[in-house]
Amino acid sequence: MKKSIPPSLVHPEHPDFGLLSSLQTEITARAGGALAFADDFPAMLRTCIDDVIMTPKTGRRSYEELEKTEKTYIGTRVEIELRALLRLKRGKLDTVILDHDVDIKNTMGSNWMIPTEAVNQVCMLVAADEVRARCYLGLIVAKHDYLTAGQNKDAKRSISAYGFQHILWLLCDHPYPANFWRTVDESIVEQIFTHDTGNARMAALFRAMQNQPISRDVVEAVAMQKDFMRRVRSDKGRGARDLLAQDGILLLQGQLHGQLIKALDLPHCSPSDFISCQPTTALQHRMAAQAGFDLPQIAD
User: Fold this and answer.
1) Closest by alpha carbon to 243, among 298, 274, 284, 197?
2) Considering the entire predicted model, what is its pTM?
3) Where in the chain do CATH 1.10.10.10 domains reside?
4) pLDDT confidence of 1, banded at 50, 70, 90?
5) What CATH number should be reported for the domain whose range is 184-291?
6) What phi, psi does 35 have (nearest 5°)?
């Protein structure tokens, strides 16, 4: 998405304000409030993208590796998931809100392609910027004056620079969960995936990425096995937890070790998240031992 988006002109004196603001209120209410929407919408986008990348099955780790048809499907998936999130029905276009037909347009780039049937109709504009991990959702009445003069072979036109000013933003340049693999140095990624077994890859992941929550999806991607959760458990000295413990590293799960995670002053983990750390004080070792972990002892 464009790094510099002009301020919206959609204020009370704007001709589209009454319609767009009423739709904004309805969308926010359906989402459970502005705060809930600001949490749930970004998470939904992350899921839509990751489910198409399919790292555990394909080994791909980025949007850029997708086929053209898969990139197109993300737009369809976002439309379906957004309707479900907001409990909306289908209409003549993609959905209906307050008896108004609304077209849902998604982009992973810097603009949206508006089809002829959506001209002069309300469009819900969704965008995800994978590089910057920022997301957008806005409403616009796709008037001719707001669209580019040029069109593609399907007669679709984009939002013009002038038209960008007539978008009412619900979320603009809002953070959303980053693609985990974009946050990891490529040398570390290579190091993790040089190992032949799921246990060894898992141990390499948590050895390199300590003190930060790791999602269940990442664990599945690294394990590359159906029984991926087995890779993070103790297993007669062969599991990732066993291998890490030999190096004095704890492997914790939010659901099982929430109290220990808090006591060690580690970042908050959701129940399905994992986190690794290396206790450095005698007190931390005692806390780990009380929780059932057997780490190499250090002197008081």
Assistant:
1) 197
2) 0.84
3) 184-291
4) confident
5) 1.10.10.10
6) -65, -40
